[in-house]
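Q: Two folds, back to back.
A: First:
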Amino acid sequence: MKIYHGLEDFAPIHNAVVTIGTFDGVHLGHQKILKRLSSVAQRIGGETVLLTFWPHPRIVLYPEYDLKLLTTMEEKTALLEKYGINHLVRIRFTKEFAALSSEEYIRQVLVEKIGTKKLVIGHDHRFGKNRAGNFADLVAKEKVYGYEVEEIPKQEIDDITINSTRIRNALNEGNIHIGNEYLGRAYSITGKVVKGDELGRKIGFPTANISVNSPHKLIPYNGSYAVQVSFPNQNHIYSGMMNMGYRPTVDGRKHSIEVHIFNFDKTIYGKTLTISFLKLIRPEEKFDSLEDLKIQLRKDKLLAQQILKSNK
């Protein structure tokens, strides 16, 4: 997959089969669009082109909303490559870009910059200033600009009302199983292992403290989870349990992400790892003493092991 960091880096190609969107999460609905895109490209001997935006348009237009995303650009890029995209064009989204009329968007972006021959979009795709452009506008310009547009029907792409907002809500409420079902995979976060206060080690549950460097990455509901852990360029997947929250039993001031990896005893400060969420064990809670916390952690570990075993 070739990656372009702006429209200015891309030269129009022959038989460009194009789709457009933020594709946050690359969930099951997105995957249907991607599969259709590849199918069309194979049929007409074309190459697939995906136009996506960074930052997310809502972050630029509504910064007060503090939108959290299912995927960083790096995560989204890795997922899109798995679906056979030939060309990924990252368009820097600005207020100036958002001001393009639907007519300017079609002519300047889709036709002049990309050379679109076939456009595949999801149901209710909107574009241009104030999101005024729609499927009918695209169809109206087919003969003018020499492309064809195909809209994937709502019932085909959205059988269970899959959208990124619904997945975000599920994760924020601790319904990891729902989020995972809609994503078609386990939700994950990636971060660097940083120094902690080593309290976990003192009570028999050493943890790796994780720092996620993307301010817009969604961190799920505070609680304890059964998880899987992996390191870059390694095939082995470790089992573990993770606690996220403010550690009310200890101090309750600073949010932390701490993962206890089962049967693991290596020093990994500074290493990057990816944690995949399988199931919420329990919400975060405050215990009367460290001994009570320790007893609960033993119970959590047994339950996590059962969940992980049933997931194999």
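A: Second:
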Amino acid sequence: MKILILTGGFGMGHDSAAQAVKEMILSSEPSANIDIIDIIDYIFPKSSKVIYGCFNFMVSKFSGLYNFFNKFTARRTSTPLKKSVVRKIDLLLKKYDIDMVISTFPACSQYISAYKKSKKCDIPLYTYITDICANEEWISEKTDMYFVGSENTKNLLLSKGVKDGKIVISGIPTKQKFREEKLVNIEEDKKEVLIMGGGLGLVPYYDNLLSKLSNMNDINVTFITGKNKKLLDKIKKEYPKIKALGYTDKVDDYMKKSDLVITKPGGITLFEAIHTNTPLYIIRPFLYQEIENARFIQEQNIGKVVWTKGTDICEDVTSLLKNEILLDYMKKNMKDISCKLETLSPLVYYNKKEVGLCF
């Protein structure tokens, strides 16, 4: 099997999902030949850094504008630069001689769908939706299967005309190590709080929270800043009692030993927490898709979401940490969610007899 996984570098979630899907396939089919391609790097090799830089700046500084742009593009039914991109997709698929395409980014699904329609071929296209909310941009005419995070997402797709047989509730892809049982060193006399802000290290109102938590003797705080080196240096300098680190591939270890994770509600982080049974604490989500993820957290009772100003975050966090009954209830709900997910490799849904010739 030759499999192409297409993704995008808008945040770290789409690429993380791609890596998780690759790991899942290789666990059941070690001989599979899998390549992961960033669609923006491939289509716009000379300007991809500028595109991603503008995205990061917009998310960090102008979240309202980002939300407006996100909602606007979600309503678009046309695929920009379709003809030129289809030509590039044609070269890409010929180069790798692909049997199946998997997408973890909406534009990838749209372009492969346009390619399939243009070339009149039936190369399987599987789309992994990386948030609970599925905008129209995720839905493409020639997608063969959708892998979604929850029943909510499935119902949303059904309401938009996607057939029931094309939807699998798999959860949002996470690496296997988040699902594995592992013993971690825990100080029983102290609560462990993990703070993460995604790839950009964005956590609202962290200054006041850190200044208070760092002076509490019964709480250990770890702050993972991702690729935000400026934030990492600031925390190390101003809050020496807090364990601060940048990008790490051991997030699963930190989650498993934590009693609570304070974070942005990205789709990947959400399901990493679900698989490690770590209750979530969300402070005023501001990005469109993360607001929908936060609603899911609240509805499923797997964490707490602070929606408005005026809450004493530190007092609220410490109160939650003392409420063992509530924390155990959240953990139970997380376990129930993970037990209901379909965790089979996407190759299970692949039928070579249905594959048509594209070239």
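Q: And?
A: Confidence is low (pLDDT under 50) at residues 352-359.
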